[in-house]
Q: What sequence folds into this?
């Protein structure tokens, strides 16, 4: 039984006068959804291993075929067509695993075959990612297609030697993620196609921005010299800072804090720390922004990932500072005391508001 059938049954019971405890129903649905996701992930992994071993065996006995781009393209097309056909059949964990496994193998074959044939692997990958994102209704496939689209766009910048605009691209993805945080209910209800794709697209944008921002200081990006373009990085920092200030404003409005001293202290600390750290570690600004929105939307997984990214960026920032270990320890302690003071001021401001 899928979720739509379950909702129809519950609705019919309510219409017949049966009392349904909504809180208990939501808890049960959450547990069942988690179990379903775990089962589907395990099924997908099993299918990938099985198909991978099978394709490896075929490659061993006919290695010449797998060096032929035309053969790879035809095989990729067959796998994608098979995945699409299975996707339109009965919804189940087994079918889901086959759909995703066929899709991954088909996408890899098509991208490599056509991409190597025309020496445009980035554009071919982008085309097939967008095409499958629109055609498939499977949540896992939509997530993989979304990630593929974001990564393909990134490598298109490398391909055409317009790497200086990478920070602009990253800023646009951060803006999109923030919008999806902010207007979740509107997006889910107003637009039919995007409402079905909301979760995979949002998750892909969320993970992509944090992951790539974390890698910006590593050797993986040194070939493209992204860190050299400080002017573009400055534009990115301004964009993220504007989003953070707007988010803090919404939080203050939601908490009904009216004390001007508290407001000024919060804005000052937020701006100061983000300007000083985000210029060197862009992941700090992104994770700080996502942490605020995850807190507002009660997005526990996102909040946890944001905290990990935030701690990572803070550790790397202090690791690179040219000061002694004692000075670093004292500065960290001072930051802790400062944040405790901000928390105290916020609680004090809330108390004054409640008294009025």
A:
């Amino acid at each position: 039984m899928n979720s739509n059938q379950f909702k129809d049954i519950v609705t019919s019971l309510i219409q017949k006068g049966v009392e349904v405890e909504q809180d208990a129903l939501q808890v049960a649905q959450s547990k069942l959804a988690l179990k379903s996701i775990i089962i589907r992930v395990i099924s997908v992994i099993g299918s990938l291993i099985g198909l991978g071993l099978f394709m490896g065996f075929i490659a061993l006995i006919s290695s010449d075929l797998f060096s032929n781009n035309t053969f790879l393209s035809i095989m990729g097309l067959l796998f994608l067509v098979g995945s699409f056909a299975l996707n339109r059949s009965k919804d189940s964990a087994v079918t889901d695993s086959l759909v995703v496994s066929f899709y991954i193998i088909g996408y890899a074959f098509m991208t490599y075959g056509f991409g190597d044939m025309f020496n445009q692997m980035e554009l071919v990958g982008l085309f097939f990612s967008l095409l499958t994102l629109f055609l498939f209704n499977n949540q896992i496939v939509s997530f993989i297609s979304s990630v593929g689209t974001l990564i393909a766009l990134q490598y298109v910048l490398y391909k055409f030697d317009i790497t200086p605009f990478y920070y602009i691209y990253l800023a646009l993805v951060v803006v999109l993620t923030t919008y999806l945080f902010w207007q979740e209910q509107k997006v889910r209800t107003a637009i039919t196609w995007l409402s079905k794709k909301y979760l995979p697209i949002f998750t892909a944008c969320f993970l992509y921005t944090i992951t790539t921002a974390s890698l910006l200081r590593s050797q993986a990006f040194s070939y493209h010299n992204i860190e050299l373009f400080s002017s573009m990085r400055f534009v990115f920092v301004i964009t993220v800072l504007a989003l953070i200030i707007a988010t803090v404003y919404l939080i203050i409005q939601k908490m009904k804090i009216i004390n001007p001293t508290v407001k000024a202290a919060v804005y000052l600390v937020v701006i100061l720390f983000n300007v000083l750290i985000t210029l060197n570690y862009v992941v700090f600004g992104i994770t700080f922004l996502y942490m605020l929105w995850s807190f507002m939307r009660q997005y526990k997984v996102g909040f946890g990932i944001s905290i990990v990214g935030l701690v990572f960026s803070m550790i790397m920032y202090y690791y690179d500072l040219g000061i002694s270990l004692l000075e670093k320890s004292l500065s960290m302690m001072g930051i802790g005391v400062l944040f405790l003071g901000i928390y105290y001021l916020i609680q004090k401001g809330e108390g004054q508001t409640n008294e009025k």
